[in-house]
Each structure stands twice: as C-alpha cells, then as structure tokens.
Design brief:
3-stranded parallel beta sheet, alpha/beta, 2 domains
Length: 219
C-alpha cells in the first residue's frame, strides 16, 4: 500500500509510474470514458495548460465527449477536440477538476501532470487557443504603420500571484528602451504609475477584452 506522501511524490513526476499509481487498471482511467466533464477556473495560463491533456484524450479515445467548464470560454471555445465549453458556474457537482496543486513541487511539465490525472501520456505540451481571424487581421492592419518588432507588454500576471509582480518603474525602463527600436503594445489593467515618455508605444491598458487580446498573446 502506497502512503499519501509517497503517492504525492511519485505523482509529482509525470510518467507511466504516476499513471499506474493513480489507475492500477488503465482501462478505468478517465480517458477511457464515453463522456468527460472537466473544469479549470482561475488563471488563464492554467486553462491553457489543460488543453494538451484534452487533446491527447481525444486522440486515444476519439468517441469521448468532452465538456469543459472554465472562466475563459472565449479562449478555448471552438477547439476541435472539446465538444462543449461553458462558464465554470455551470459546472455539474461531479465535474472533474483538472489541477496540479496537489503535486507541488512538480518534477515535470504541468501539462504532463494534468495528463496523468486523465490517464494519458501527453507528448506534445504546446497549448491551444482560439483566435478570431477577423480580429487578427484587423490588428495586422492597425499595426502595419508601426515599426517592428511589435513587443507585447503585460505587467501583471494575475491577481492570484502578486509575488510575480515586478515594480512599475522597472517596467517603464524596459518599455522606454524597447520603444527605441520597436513598438511596445501594453495591455492588461491600468497600473498605478502612469506610462512614461516612450518612442513607439500603444497604450491598450483596460481597453482590450480576452478576445481582442488573443491575436497579440497567442499568435
């Protein structure tokens, strides 16, 4: 019998051993189900990390019907391997929560750890998202007059991780220097410290939705 500490340690290292600990009978793993209700709320990046696992489920079990519940419906709504995408508030009580928090500190890629939870071996960890081609083309046209490279600047990772915040005065130095040889495009919430005097700079703080920002973020 594997203790809780040993189980957490092994499951922090993605791979066959972790999957066998979770599912001694691989035919009972979630990836073998006819239908999966999966959920991930909170941070945008965590939602993206779930997409390789769902993609792999569809490859090993094409008939599996996947419903995904998230705070970022526009980010993944329309991906070919997810049958339905709904707001997290509509998730059923028995929804399967995709997470990696129980495997901290992780000993491998988080997308692989999430895949182990579903019983699949995630080989391609590249995430997917949906980009509106009309919006993407409109941004290309809008940015055409501005010098390249176009550098996206997002000062705040999320409200859940203030430990990742970098002081605004340092961001201002980066923006000023980058704007000398390219165009800085700033998105996200409005910061306490107003932007300085830059060269080629577009201030889109608090002016873009997720759909509008996606062509910049994930192109």
């Amino acid at each position: 019998m594997i203790g809780a500490f040993a189980k957490k340690t092994f499951c922090s290292r993605p791979g066959l051993v972790a999957r066998r600990i979770r599912y001694p009978n691989p035919f009972l793993a979630p990836c073998q189900a006819k239908r999966l209700d999966l959920a991930r709320g909170q941070a945008l990046g965590d939602v993206l990390l779930c997409t390789p696992a769902m993609r792999e489920v569809k490859q090993v079990n094409p008939s599996c019907y996947i419903r995904f519940f998230t705070d970022f419906v526009p980010l993944v709504g329309g991906l070919s391997y997810i049958n339905e995408v709904h707001p997290i508030q509509q998730a059923p009580p028995d929804v399967y929560q995709l997470s990696y928090e129980g495997c901290i500190p992780p000993q491998g890629h988080l997308a692989k750890i999430i895949g182990d939870q579903l019983g699949v071996d995630v080989k391609d960890v590249k995430p997917d998202c949906v980009i509106n081609p009309v919006l993407a083309e409109s941004y290309r046209a809008m940015l055409a007059p501005f010098p390249k490279p176009h550098v996206l600047l997002l000062r705040r990772a999320s409200r859940w991780t203030p430990n990742k915040d970098w002081p605004d005065r340092y961001w201002n130095v980066v923006a000023e220097r980058v704007s000398r040889f390219g165009t800085v495009i700033e998105i996200g919430g409005i910061t306490e410290e107003s932007p300085g005097e830059y060269g080629s700079y577009l201030d889109n703080q608090a002016r873009t939705s997720l759909e509008a920002a996606s062509p910049h973020l994930f192109r």
